[in-house]
Amino acid sequence: MGLVRLPALVDLHVHFREPGFTDKEDIESGVAAAAAGGYGVVCMMPNTLPAVDSVGVLEKLARRGRVCGAPHGVRVLAASAMTLDQAGQTLVDFDAMDKADTDCLKLTGHGVCGITEDGKTLGDPLLMEQVCAAAVRLGLPIMDHAEPEVEIIQRDVALAEKTGTHFHIQHISLAESVSLIRAAKAAGLPITCETAPHYFALTEADAAPSAKGTNAKMNPPLRKEHDRQAILEGLSDGTIDCIATDHAPHEAAAKAGPFDLAANGVIGLETAFPVSYTLLVKSGLITLEALIRLMSTRPAEIIGLAPGALGMIEADLETPWIIDAAAFKSKARNTPFAGMEVYGRIV
Question: Is 246 a residue of the active site?
């Protein structure tokens, strides 16, 4: 086997569904999936029930993450919601969240890894400027789920220019998004972004019932081939800072039935590295070192993690294997990559 030692991976965008939706995933099963995929640090999104909108909820999750993560060497961080109950009306007490007793505080100096209304977009312009002011004061990134994608990226670029806020745009999927972010970076604005493996591996054709069906349904949706090519270009030229999974587990029933009624989301922690290595490095588009920057060191920088906090993993880069969803550590099986031959098994 061609085993190599690499820095552990960092995922800025996971959904562990705890509290409230633990039939889909919980922190214990999510951490096991993260470890199997080579991740040493994961950042949980706050769209749970209740939402991560108070110190009480945040610190409870932090304790669970510490207990579940320790046997696997995985650090579990969390982002704060923007508004109470993610209802878009009353802002969270960001100063209190920033001082919460969490592993994130020990690793980065902040109780949370960012501020986000993930799964939603905060539309109120006055509230959004107040969120920006808090983010700048505390030195936290705003992790923004841009929907509609192009319109919200344009808004966030304008806010970054006006307020100096660091915006981290989540799961970009469109060619126009890549162009907007490339221009913003050229102008020196504090904009970073992520994409996910499905946006450079698949297109809208893969979501057809005759192809991968509801296991290729997510938000934002799969796009056209020219968008996929633009994402690949953005990864190779440095416009896109990192690869995240948007790991979104669902029970089988939520993905059953007609496409229009099925839940959005696919899992990715156990497939992201092999799919990315196979399509990006084995293809010759980027080097292994560039992939590690996309999946480990750059996301660590974005949330203020020191490289020494990451730990190490080993991967077999030479032996091909077939992705088998039945063998996943996650509770969920909703992957569009089942049956794909890949390289880069985490051992």
Answer: yes
